[in-house]
Design brief:
alpha/beta; two-stranded antiparallel ribbon; binds nicotinamide-adenine-dinucleotide; NAD binding; Isopropylmalate Dehydrogenase; binds 3-isopropylmalic acid; binds manganese (II) ion; 18% strand; amino-acid biosynthesis; EC 1.1.1.85; IsoPropMal-DH-like_dom
């Protein structure tokens, strides 16, 4: 039976990199005889323009009934003062689908090791995953915005912490079995509950180790010796910031995919970066983040390991040929890079 994939290209480079990922996906569908029904829906700024809402009802309905969702990126200066910003649509979608576990893998392809701003010996072999809590914390607490005072409430329930810590351990079990829980337990109440809960959940995983790190020092260690990490688990805002920081290790946000999972229901796959208004409509965005997000979808939603690997290997081979987009100092356009991956997939 055919699998329903909802594509939400969104705004800015979102549409350009979605085109790339779907070109690659269509090739894989032919090669591996996969039956995907891919339908596009308006979302983010495009949702506001087309339907007056960043998360139109029909888009949400389609996502709820999908087998998986691919999202490009949303946002841009055009909608910065909209009554409901594109970002609200994104947060609303994550919340509505219960996408609490955001998985952001960090590794450095051989072809770009020398391009990292960090020392080569610290970068070679980096392989960790940021497990970011995605539907709680300060993003979703009560907000007050007055003329002279404003506040954002950060709350976490024990249940919300338990399920994300469990997720991190489950992932660690398939890897090097080490979980680093990142918090600010020297100051924040939510972090104190986080740390205590992490200790308790760790008892369920005696084959794994748990360490705690304060977020400020974790931000430093991530640059100083990134090989120290296997699985990092952290709350929503810290995970947002640390994962963008982590993108400096391989050298560009444009290579970074992610997967977001709920307890049951469709998962969503999206780059960790945004709509990059500074480079939109120039055909220069690095499409790898989106192509690799599609590969994550094949692996994690549809257990199509070999199809996913084929795409990842083709991207590696293209970069090994020195075909790089401008974010990595190369000259390839978005479409050049995509065509090169396509050629690799076709064995040309
Ligand atoms: P951004 O992630 O869009 O861009 C940061 C920098 O990285 C820019 O210089 C950009 O050119 C570069 N970059 C990002 N992706 C790239 C790619 N694929 N190839 C090459 N270079 C790339 O962050 P920003 O500029 O702070 O935010 C722009 C908009 O995106 C804002 O409206 C923000 O809210 C939104 N945003 C959306 C998402 C999302 O859709 N999930 C994520 C982050 C930011
Ligand atoms: C991300 C983005 C979003 C976030 C914004 C656009 C709401 O930065 O996906 O990392 O903060 O979660
Ligand atoms: Mn972010």
């Amino acid at each position: 039976m055919s699998k329903r994939i909802v594509a939400l290209p969104g705004d800015g480079i979102g549409t350009e990199i979605m085109d790339s990922a779907l070109t690659i996906l269509e090739e894989i569908m032919v090669q591996d005889n996969l039956d995907f029904d891919i339908e596009h829906f308006a979302f983010g700024g495009a949702g506001i323009d087309e339907k007056g809402d960043p998360l139109p009802e029909e888009t949400l309905n389609a996502c709820e009934n999908a087998d998986a969702i691919l999202l490009g990126a949303i946002g841009g200066p055009k909608w910065d003062n909209a009554p409901k910003r594109p970002e609200q649509g994104l947060l609303g979608l994550r919340k509505a689908l219960g996408l609490f576990a955001n998985i952001r893998p960090i590794s450095v392809p051989d072809a770009v090791i020398h391009l990292s701003p960090l020392k080569e010996e610290n970068v070679r072999g980096v392989d960790f995953v940021v497990v970011r809590e995605l539907t709680g914390g300060i993003y979703f607490g009560e907000k007050k915005l007055g003329e002279t005072e404003a506040s954002d409430l950060c709350t976490y329930s024990k249940g919300e912490i338990q399920r994300i810590i469990r997720k991190a351990f489950e992932i660690a079990r398939t890897r090097k079995k080490k979980v680093t829980s990142v918090d600010k337990a020297n100051v924040l109440a939510t972090s104190k509950l986080w740390r205590k809960t992490a200790e308790e959940v760790a008892q369920e995983f005696p084959d794994c180790t748990l360490e705690h790190q304060l977020v400020d020092s974790a931000a430093m260690v991530m640059i100083q010796k990134p090989k120290a990490f296997d699985v990092i688990v952290t709350e929503n805002l810290f995970g947002d910031i640390l994962s963008d920081e982590a993108s400096v290790i391989p050298g560009s946000l444009g290579m970074m995919p992610s997967a977001s999972h709920s307890e049951s229901g469709p998962s969503l796959y999206e780059p960790i970066h945004g709509s990059a208004p500074d480079i939109a409509n120039q055909n220069i965005a690095n499409p790898m983040s989106m192509i690799l997000s599609a590969a994550m979808m094949l692996r994690q939603s549809f257990s199509l390991e070999s199809s996913a690997k084929k795409i990842e290997d083709a991207c590696d081979r293209v970069m090994n040929q020195g075909i790089l987009t401008t974010d990595l100092g190369g000259k390839a356009t978005t479409t050049d890079f995509t065509e090169s991956v396509l050629k690799e997939l076709r064995g040309a």
